[in-house]
Amino acid sequence: MRATRHVPCKTCPLRQQRLFKPFSEQELRFVATLKTAHVTVPANQPILELGAQSGALYTLFSGWAFRYLRLPDGSRQILDFLLPGDLIGLQPAFLGGINYGVTALTAVSLCVLHGAAIDALFDGHPGLVRALVATLLEEKRRTDRRLAVLGRRQGPQRIGYLMLETFDRLVQQGLDAGTECPFPLRRRHLADALGLSGSHVNRSLDELQARGLATIEDRRLLIRDRERLAAFAGYTGLNELMGRLIL
Amino acid sequence: MRATRHVPCKTCPLRQQRLFKPFSEQELRFVATLKTAHVTVPANQPILELGAQSGALYTLFSGWAFRYLRLPDGSRQILDFLLPGDLIGLQPAFLGGINYGVTALTAVSLCVLHGAAIDALFDGHPGLVRALVATLLEEKRRTDRRLAVLGRRQGPQRIGYLMLETFDRLVQQGLDAGTECPFPLRRRHLADALGLSGSHVNRSLDELQARGLATIEDRRLLIRDRERLAAFAGYTGLNELMGRLIL
DNA sequence: CGGCTTCTTGATCAAGGTCAACCTTTGTGG
DNA sequence: CCACAAAGGTTGACCTTGATCAAGAAGCCG
Q1: pLDDT higher for A33 or A4?
Q2: Smallest CA–CA separation between A187 and chain B, in Å?
């Protein structure tokens, strides 16, 4: 983890996006006081480790990361892929103690926030708290669906679902949507996120390709027939959400 | 849904439990203003329906319920079982629009809260909001683990996990823990919650019994060897949590 | 050019889904 | 209280999905 030059909150490009709640002057001033540093982490390096007691809170500024759980038998379940704007470490900062790990998928850069200070959020910043709760509930909605996908759909459908969800999250962030997007996940990540084995991920990808629905090539995702892919995977779209919180 | 006599918030027996955040006088007064009625719903009847636009918010007062998603192909994924003290309908009350359904598993009774009014929570009740966020994050932790269980464990382990989690939730609520507890789920509920078929639920229950770990008899769960069951299912205990919100 | 990790493919086999028949419990109306 | 219907549970046969293992092929560094 290497420190780099500060990005001032005031001109933060992430915040400009429609996805996020616009801040008042006062709110912006508060958020700016939280920020303590800006760091980078190379691909495949840990951002939060399971044992650690850091209390730090991060906003993912650029790059991809993932959150995972390690089961007693050693296997890994990826819980979520994190994209720019996502908060990292709210749970440990707030509840104390950490459950999960977060690892950089690509090289990432992070805003470091003073974790203990977010408690002050609750006194005098009702707008920010509303946005926080909305963000949490929105995430819960995504989690609900993901649970249903793991519980009820098979390999190819699971992959198709993740593809569309990820694509749409990128679009919400302002990716100028064509029919493709970056997709740095390796087979292993797909397997660990979707509860499949490596080889089965391959067979499933083959099927998606054979049906002319989508392919992954060269770290990019190509959606060949969005309509049919959505029907195939049972994907019904992200909810358009009202001002997420970004810190 | 039938209206019944009010239970006054002031003397609400649920609130006495250690599990929930104690209220100040002022907070209690605020919460009491939210309450509009007290109703009952018979077993297997809907509490919240997918299409509806009710804006009502409930606290489950007694009985069990479950939250589920209906997939495009008609199958049902149970997302969560709801126990007394759990909030029902926060997501629709706050985000508007509803994703999921909630159905009574046993006969239940519910506190009806004025959903639109919870927005006032954010102005002037920081203690309650902290408890709300803590509750949401705590639930997220449970969801994370459940996702890992669905993604990575097989039938018998999944069932064992759900048994222990449910048992411990009841204990947290003040059930005087012996080695058994009420367990009103039918095979179908287990199947739909855990992503299994009805017959496989049976085979898996047989295995748990044959190993001397646990049985379900007569709507009650009997934990025969907690130690070994936990090891078998990869269950590591609920987190002791700090004052959940109850409304 | 080794020595990595990742991807691909095929063979084998266990987990678990589907279907069907039958049985048991629960609930309902006479 | 009984008769019957409906819902839920049990069991077995059969077959699909997907895990596991292994061996080889690309890529991708240093």
Answers
A1: A33
A2: 16
